[in-house]
Amino acid sequence: MIPSIQRPYDASAVRSSRHRVLRNTYWLLALSMIPTVLGAVVGVQFALPVLRGGIGLVLFLAIAFGFMFAIEKTKNSAAGVPVLLGFTFFMGLMLTPVLRLTLGYANGPALIMGAFGGTAVVFAAMATIATVSKRDFSGMGSWLFAGTIVLLLASVVNIWLALPALYLATLVLCVGIFTAWLLFDVQRIVNGGETNYITATLSVYLDVYNIFTALLQLLGIGFGQRD
Q: Considering Cα of 58, then 166, then 121, then 133, what sign does the dihedral take?
């Protein structure tokens, strides 16, 4: 019987691999902001029609999940990055209604910059905690998934109820849930739970996107100034 040969565990190689995935994720995340901004500019400048109501939500989800399916299928090929960037351009277009509403305020540009700055602070804080903390946040996954489902259901219900209090509650909940998702997703990369930088970027991008849009709407509600 020939004894099996086991390779020695190379801790430095593992750390190097995880660091590479994290670095590539951050670079691709930064790159993804370019088509997002372009999509937003196109949407605002050409006043693209807004997807409203239940039909609009269904159409949005169909396109978004179609992109996500394509990203999953191409994540290990050369097409993965262009598909991801196409998705971020689409998500930029979807910012059209909230941006047009915000720009209707006298201090609209300041509100946009405030939401951008707030998102950047949240990202920096969560990324730092996820990287340096010894605490394992992987147990949050099931709770975050459940919270996201509740948030989605509440948002869908409020399409028909149009309750201001529920709308405000969903925005606050959105910021809290996706801030926690950001912590969870970055630590997964740091700990080696996510080894593909394209899907890692998709997860972190969605966290950042949702935090930004919720913060922007909250700032508009609290500080928007009419002419």
A: negative
Other beta carbons within 10 angstroms of residue 213's beta carbon come to 21
Angle between helices 96-103 and 11-45 (to 10 degrees): 60
> Does residue 80 contact residue 69 with C-beta atoms inside 8 Å?
no
Indicate yes or no: pTM above 0.85.
Answer: yes
Q: Which residues contact 139 (CB under 8 A, 6 or more apart)?
A: none
- Nearby residues of 170 by Cβ (< 8 Å), 6 or more positions away: 151, 154, 155, 158
Task: Tell me the residue length of the chain.
Answer: 227
Q: Which token pair is 105?
A: 């305020």
Neighbouring CB atoms inside 10 A of 30's CB total 10
Instruction: Map out the domains of the chain as residue ranges.
Output: 12-223
Measured CA to CA, the distance from residue 146 to residue 151 in angstroms comes to 9
Interval 58-117: pLDDT, tens: 888 899 999 999 999 999 999 999 999 999 999 999 999 999 999 999 999 999 999 999
Helix axes 164-190, 108-132, angle to 10 degrees: 40
* Residue type at position 197: Y
Among candidates 86, 83, 205, 188, which has minimal Cα distance to 141? 188
